[in-house]
Amino acid sequence: MVSEAAGRDRATATATPSPLRPVRLPRRWLVVALAGLVVAVLFGMTVGPAGLPLRGVVLEIVNHVPGVELDGGLDDREAAVLWQLRAPRVVLGLLVGAMLAIAGAGYQGVFRNPLADPYLLGVAAGAGLGATFAIVSGGNRALVPLAAFVGGVAGVAATYALGRGVGGRSTNSLILAGVAVAAFLTSVQTYVNQRNADSLREVYGWILGRLLTAGWSEVVIVLPYVLVAGAVIFAHRRLLDVLSVGPDEAGTLGVPAARVRLVVVLAATLGTAAAVSVSGLIGFVGIVVPHIVRMLAGSSYRVVLPLSALVGGTFLVVSDLAARTLVSPGELPVGVVTAFVGAPFFTLVLRSSRRAW
């Protein structure tokens, strides 16, 4: 009996990969992700109402490398379209998509919940309410990103305050607090919209998500937050692997689960709030992308996080390309496109979550 039990334990240990085992990023998936990113960027910069030649775009980009000067490229009008309209929009899509995907993976890691996303703790509801107040006030529209950022951070702060007051450090109480705070903030936003019906179109245009840019200003706003938040989450990738065995087991290995959860959530919240402040509420990226990476390349966060950043940026650039070409000369909100892909993906997540986790 004892020998049989020991044999089963050894077999289980062999079949179950340890979260502490060294994991390397699969080179083939890294190459595929980088290749997809390059293709998406090139198509995002060439396709549009004013079509640009692919060869000219490539030469124009290469000519901006110090010490390189090639014949060809774009004329002045085409170069203006590329650098003032297309390139800022594509770069913004890369940053927002990467941040939402990383934040989603981080949330799923600390809460050990395959359906967790960057909007779990009320950042979306808070950002939506902040943006709504800024829009209906009739003031400077440049204040909308700032109001959305402040609202998103305030929403998560309210969730943490409520969760700690009700259930201490329990993960379930924090999630339930996020649901309650989001419901309250959404109801306030609905009331404000009803009182200001003339601003409904603009408010819902922001809520549905868009990557409209007025040059590089939006990129400059969001870039520092994405870099800092992404660096903090990446620095905790090994600890997220340890947390996958459970908070109690992680504690026996010397990992402070509560502190790791707080740091990752704060970083993901700041990055997400900055992203949605310039793009609106683009849904499903934080759920779809990490699960695609897990199903294809493995569940270790040393693999999930870097590939999610690449695939998330690619996914949003491609979604934005579809949004501005499917109903040309009109344009769909990019959030509609991501929802069209993400909503059916829930079925796949629910069916595969037991295998992935």
Helix content: over 70%
Instruction: Categorize the overall geometry.
Output: globular
The top level CATH class name:
Mainly Alpha
The topology string of helices and strands comes to HHHHHHHHHHHHHHH
Number of helices: 15
Structural class: mainly alpha
Note the gap between the termini.
Answer: 30 Å
Largest sheet: none
Percent of sequence in beta strands = under 5%
CATH architecture annotation name: Orthogonal Bundle
Tell me how many strands there are: 0
**CATH homolog superfamily:** ABC transporter involved in vitamin B12 uptake, BtuC
The low-pLDDT segments are: 1-20
Present the secondary structure layout.
Layout: H1 2-15, H2 27-46, H3 54-62, H4 76-111, H5 123-136, H6 144-167, H7 171-195, H8 200-207, H9 217-235, H10 237-243, H11 247-252, H12 257-279, H13 285-297, H14 301-323, H15 334-356
